[in-house]
Write a structure and sequence with these properties.
The protein has 120 residues and is an alpha+beta fold. It has one domain: 2-Layer Sandwich (Alpha-Beta Plaits), CATH 3.30.70. A hairpin with a 3-residue loop joins strand 2 and strand 3. It is globular and about 65 Å long. 14% of the residues are buried.
């Protein structure tokens, strides 16, 4: 079994179900296919940089980390192809257990508070 990462963009236009319900339904369907979901991160609602097909202007982004065989990874695109609640689905192999949240955020210093050095 290998580590994989899925970025899914849910189409929430005209959807009555809460996003959390959509995420749980998506995760349970992955488990039914034979994947082991290790973690999920709700990235929130984002506006697209340009209008997408069918005049979609925004979507709800979710990232899922899981372990599965390559056969299951190949079946995921086919399984969710006709699901109208999913706008985009990107499956990528994650060679390690690295998650972006494992990296501490960068330290940002406020320039206005920095001491001013005089030029002599």
């Amino acid at each position: 079994m290998n580590n994989y990462e899925i970025l899914v963009i849910f189409d929430t236009n005209g959807v009555v179900d809460p996003v959390d319900t959509m995420i749980e339904s998506f995760s349970s369907r992955l488990v039914e296919l034979g994947a082991q979901v290790t973690d999920k991160e709700n990235l929130g609602h984002k506006v697209f940089s340009r209008e997408a097909k069918l005049h979609r202007q925004s979507g709800h982004y979710v990232k899922v980390w899981l372990r599965m065989t390559s056969e299951v990874a190949g079946q995921i695109q086919d399984h969710f192809r006709l699901d109208e609640s999913i706008f985009r689905l990107i499956v990528s192999r994650n060679p390690g257990t690295f998650r972006p949240t494992d990296v501490p955020p960068p330290v940002v210093h406020d320039v206005a508070e920095a001491p001013v050095e005089s030029i002599a």
